[in-house]
DNA sequence: TCAAAAGTGTTCTGGATACACCCATGT
DNA sequence: ACATGGGTGTATCCAGAACACTTTTGA
């Protein structure tokens, strides 16, 4: 069929998770304009004619919230005819994971406010964003079970317990410490350092850092890691 | 950001697999118009303003090839700026599985020819369709390992060996007959009939049919079935 | 009687899970 | 001394993988 007058707008939306101090957060913006003015929504916006989809999400995210992120993975494309009151809008959603403390979030352009919401305190959101968020959570949780993502979320040197907390927070359930250490150690992506870290009472923790080479190699090979 | 003049076209593409007599095929059309005139490509086309994405794929597929299908699952959205010589075109791809013998395929609209290609004899294809096809194959194979799809592809009554052949064809590798029967039987989705089927020499095969209720219930629960 | 396809159980192994006590430090 | 968090090993269980012979028919 030849080109018809197509009047469909294309947007991207970002489900950005943040991890800090054992808690997982979701980034939302408060909309400055109609529709859904003054309501919370995912950061996102129109794709420009000359930018790739990934560039579009990264740009919108940066513009609206100040968050810069390189790991963004495509989630799903939502395109129901009535999902946006402005007309036909198809949205390609992405998700990613960052450290909130690395960014000074600040609302701009379409957003009049930005905020990190703890995963269990997510407010009502606009459009069909609730569904998008839900698929983001499901995907994130299933992903970390077989791919060691999320290592970027820790300090350069970190105690093992930080990694454990990260995983249990992302999964939303406790992990067995001994089994977890066993599995991670088998991956051989951690270098044990001589440093230790002491925070208050308790035995000081051995510090580790990532062996990035091995880590990225594993990622390429598509590790099967089954938490 | 308010609505800018966005000039992006939206298309859908279908990666349709066919299964017949122990072989897996892929449906391609031969393009009637530029670009890539006279070359093979995935069936697909522009989304209309007032139809959902799934409707659009189903419609295009029907129009161009004559194939009707209800199970189509979203695969991925391809949107690189230079993927289509006509300009910016973002394509949402879907994949599905049908029985070729159920359809009289016939080219129309954009297609001047349609054909089922055996999976190992896929010709060069237009655009970035090779990548799309590849993701379709990967997805199909990983999917049937944990979800009992593909049952629609057999006759109402069928010998167990048909199911086995189907799976080994889809996976592209042989499956162990005893282990396979064991696992499928545990799912409890097959009703054993009194009929048998005899085709040439060899012991006649017991016929089975699906217990659809149980089958759809399992599907809902998200069976973990691990072939 | 032979060729062809259907049917059927057991063993082995490896990974996942469950589980509890000692160690080093700060107060 | 005690409270706090760090660190470690073993036993069990289950699911997946491997594997070969008997049965029933057509020719």
TrEMBL record, chains A, B:
Record PANTHER family: ADP-RIBOSE PYROPHOSPHATASE, SLR1690 PROTEIN
Organism (species): Nonlabens spongiae
InterPro entries xref list: Nudix_hydrolase, NUDIX_hydrolase-like_dom_sf, NUDIX_hydrolase_CS, NUDIX_hydrolase_dom, WH-like_DNA-bd_sf, WH_DNA-bd_sf, WHD_NrtR
Keywords from the named record: Hydrolase
One GO molecular-function entry: hydrolase activity
Segments traversing the membrane: none
Family: Belongs to the Nudix hydrolase family.
Record-given protein name: NUDIX hydrolase
Domain Nudix hydrolase residues, every copy: 7-140
Presence of the UniProt keyword Transcription in the record: no
């Amino acid at each position: 069929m030849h080109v018809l007058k197509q009047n469909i707008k294309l947007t991207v939306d970002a489900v950005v998770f943040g991890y800090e101090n054992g808690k997982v957060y979701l980034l939302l913006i408060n909309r400055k304009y109609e529709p859904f003015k003054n309501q919370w929504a995912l950061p996102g916006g129109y794709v420009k004619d000359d930018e790739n989809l990934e560039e579009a999400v990264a740009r919108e995210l940066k513009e609206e919230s100040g968050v810069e992120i390189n790991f963004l993975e495509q989630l799903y494309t939502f395109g129901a005819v009535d999902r946006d009151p402005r007309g036909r809008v198809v949205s390609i959603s992405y998700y990613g994971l960052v450290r909130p403390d690395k960014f000074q979030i600040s609302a701009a352009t379409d957003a009049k406010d930005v905020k990190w919401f703890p995963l269990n305190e997510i407010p009502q959101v606009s459009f069909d964003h609730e569904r998008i968020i839900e698929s983001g959570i499901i995907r994130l949780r299933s992903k970390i079970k077989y791919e060691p993502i999320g290592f970027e979320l820790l300090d350069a040197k970190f105690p093992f317990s930080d990694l454990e907390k990260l995983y249990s927070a992302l999964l939303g359930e406790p992990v067995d410490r001994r089994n977890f250490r066993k599995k991670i150690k088998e991956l051989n992506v951690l270098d044990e350092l001589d440093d230790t870290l002491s925070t208050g009472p308790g035995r000081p923790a051995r510090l580790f850092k990532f062996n990035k080479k091995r880590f990225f190699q594993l990622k390429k090979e598509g590790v099967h890691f089954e938490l």
